[in-house]
C-alpha cells in the first residue's frame, strides 16, 4: 500500500512491456506486522518492503511473494519477485533496499530470473518450522519467537503421530474456516518433531499449505505429546475431515516460513531448511 491508498493484490496480470525481473530472498521478524499482505489499515511486510524498494528505485514497485504469512508469523526465507525498470547489479538491490528497511526485515539475496519466473507458482514445495518453548515457566526471550507450552511434551510420540500425515490427503481437519484455497487436498513430503533442549521443533514440508494448517497440526500434536490423545489420533482426524474434532490453533509466534523450493534451472540459492539453525536465533 502506498500513501495514495493503493493496495497491491496478489494477482497475475499480463505484462505490457518486458522489464528485468529479479527474485529476492527476504527474512523478517513478523512480530510487529499484521501479516504479509498489503492492507489499507495496519503495518504489513508487503507494504514495508514495497515502500523500501520504491524509495530505492525512485518509482513505485510491486512484489509477488511465494507464500503469504499471517500476523506474527516469521520468515527465514520468503521469496518474492519484482519487475524493475532498469538493470543494476544484484548486490546493489540488496544494499539499496536494506538501507530503507527497518531492522525487522532484510533482503538476504537477489538474483536476476527469467521474465516468466513467478515466486508463488514456480515453487514446488515449502518448508515451515514451528518452535515450541516447552518449560514450566514462560520465557520473555522466547515470547515472540516460540509458542509456549508448560507441561512436559513427549517429542517421540509427537513424531510418531505426525507420520500419518505424510502423503496426499484431504487436510480439512486442519483447515481454518476462512481458508480460501480451492482444494483441501495437499501433499505432505515430510514432517519431523524433535527436541532441542527446552525447544520442541516441528518441521513440515509440503507442496502447499492451507490457512492455519501448520498451527492446527501443532495444536493436535501437543495433545498427543501431553498424553491427552493417543499416537493414532492424527490419522483418525485425517479420515474425519472435521476441523471441530482437532485441537485449537496454536500461537502464531512460533511459526517460521523456513524454505521455498524451486527448480534448479532458476539458479536461486539453495534453501537451508535445517531446523537446528533456529537455535542460533
From TrEMBL:
GO terms for molecular function: RNA binding; tRNA pseudouridine(38-40) synthase activity. It comes from the Bacteria. Residues 27-122, 161-263 form the Pseudouridine synthase I TruA alpha/beta domain. Keywords: Isomerase, tRNA processing. The active site is at 70 (nucleophile). InterPro entries: PsdUridine_synth_cat_dom_sf, PsdUridine_synth_TruA, PsdUridine_synth_TruA_a/b_dom, PsdUridine_synth_TruA_C, TruA/RsuA/RluB/E/F_N. One of its GO terms (biological process) is tRNA pseudouridine synthesis. Substrate binds at residue 128. Its EC number is 5.4.99.12. It catalyses: uridine(38/39/40) in tRNA = pseudouridine(38/39/40) in tRNA. Homodimer. HAMAP family: TruA. Belongs to the tRNA pseudouridine synthase TruA family. Formation of pseudouridine at positions 38, 39 and 40 in the anticodon stem and loop of transfer RNAs. This is tRNA pseudouridine synthase A. The gene is truA.
Amino acid at each position: 500500500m502506498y500513501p495514495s491508498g493503493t493496495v497491491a493484490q496478489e494477482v497475475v496480470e499480463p505484462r505490457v512491456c518486458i522489464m528485468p525481473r529479479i527474485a529476492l530472498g527476504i527474512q523478517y521478524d513478523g512480530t510487529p506486522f499484521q501479516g504479509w499482505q498489503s492492507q489499507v489499515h495496519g503495518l504489513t511486510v508487503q507494504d514495508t518492503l514495497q515502500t523500501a524498494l520504491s524509495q530505492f528505485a525512485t518509482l513505485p514497485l510491486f512484489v509477488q511473494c511465494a507464500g503469504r504469512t499471517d500476523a506474527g508469523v516469521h520468515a527465514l526465507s520468503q521469496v518474492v519477485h519484482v519487475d524493475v525498470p532498469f538493470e543494476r547489479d544484484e548486490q546493489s538491490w540488496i544494499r539499496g533496499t536494506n538501507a530503507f528497511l527497518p531492522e525487522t526485515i532484510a533482503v538476504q539475496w537477489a538474483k536476476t530470473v527469467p521474465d516468466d519466473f513467478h515466486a508463488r507458482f514456480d515453487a514446488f514445495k515449502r518448508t515451515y518450522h514451528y518452535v515450541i518453548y516447552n518449560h514450566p515457566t514462560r520465557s520473555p526471550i522466547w515470547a515472540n519467537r516460540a509458542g509456549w507450552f508448560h507441561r512436559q511434551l513427549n517429542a517421540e510420540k509427537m513424531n510418531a503421530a505426525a507420520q500419518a500425515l505424510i502423503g496426499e490427503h484431504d487436510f480439512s481437519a486442519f483447515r481454518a474456516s476462512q481458508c480460501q484455497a480451492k482444494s483441501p487436498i495437499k501433499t505432505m513430503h515430510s514432517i519431523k518433531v524433535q527436541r532441542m533442549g527446552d525447544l520442541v521443533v516441528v518441521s513440515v514440508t509440503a507442496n502447499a499449505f492451507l490457512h492455519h494448517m501448520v498451527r492446527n497440526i501443532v495444536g493436535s500434536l501437543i495433545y498427543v505429546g501431553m498424553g491427552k490423545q493417543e499416537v493414532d489420533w492424527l490419522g483418525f482426524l485425517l479420515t474425519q475431515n472435521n476441523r471441530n474434532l482437532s485441537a485449537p490453533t496454536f500461537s502464531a509466534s512460533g511459526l517460521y516460513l523456513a524454505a521455498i523450493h524451486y527448480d534448479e534451472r532458476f539458479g536461486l540459492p539453495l534453501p537451508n531448511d535445517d531446523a537446528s539453525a533456529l537455535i542460533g536465533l
